[in-house]
Structures are given as structure tokens and as C-alpha cells.
Design a protein that fits this description.
The chain has 103 residues and is mostly helical. It has one domain. The chain contains four helices and three strands; from the N terminus they run H-E-H-H-E-E-H. It has a three-stranded antiparallel beta sheet. The radius of gyration is 14 Å and the shape is globular. 15% of the residues are buried.
């Protein structure tokens, strides 16, 4: 399986089970500089390795970094990659808080 797809699947699993996961990074083969400053939803879907319908579902999340202009969804590249990387950090922080509370 593709590394990004696996990372995305782990992110979804972590949301359901609150499991710690590593954040996707440039070592996974995705480099922000390879994409334009403004991403289209097709490119977001390509990066996440999902179909465009699922990418639009993800864009509806309140924490997803996008600008809505009528029916058009504008995704700033750097904000998107920050959001993608922070998803793993948030899960890690949540896991750390839980482990400290159980002590």
C-alpha cells in the first residue's frame, strides 16, 4: 500500500480509537514544494490518496484549512500541510495526557 494512504488510514483509525500515530512527513515522499501555493480539491485528494468525493467530505471538517468562495474551495498549500502534520501531533498530545492521568 502507498505510504500516504497508510498514514491517512492510521489518522482515521486514531480518530476512532484514539491511537497514537506518527505524522506524515516529507520522508513519506510528499513535499509541499512539489505542489502549487493554492491546492485544488483534486490535488488534496491525490495527496491524501482518496477520491475527490472523500476529499470534499474532509474539507467540511471545521478544522480543515480552506477558504470558501461560493462553491469553490481554496486550500492554501502551506496551511494544508501544517494541518496534515498537526493531526499526528494532536493525537500524540492527547495520548500523553491520558497516560499521565492514569498514573
Amino acid at each position: 500500500m502507498d505510504i500516504l494512504f497508510c498514514a491517512y488510514q492510521r489518522m482515521l483509525q486514531a480518530e476512532r480509537e484514539e491511537v497514537k500515530q506518527p505524522a506524515p512527513s516529507e520522508s513519506d515522499g510528499v513535499k509541499p514544494g512539489d505542489y502549487p501555493l493554492i491546492l485544488r480539491m483534486v490535488e488534496v485528494a491525490e495527496i491524501l490518496r482518496v477520491n475527490t468525493h472523500k476529499a470534499y467530505d474532509i474539507a467540511r471538517r471545521p478544522d480543515f484549512p480552506c477558504i470558501r468562495d461560493g462553491n469553490r474551495i481554496i486550500v492554501p498549500r502551506d496551511a494544508f500541510f501544517d494541518w496534515l502534520n498537526s493531526a499526528g501531533l494532536q493525537k500524540e498530545n492527547r495520548e500523553n495526557r491520558r497516560s499521565k492521568q492514569s498514573l
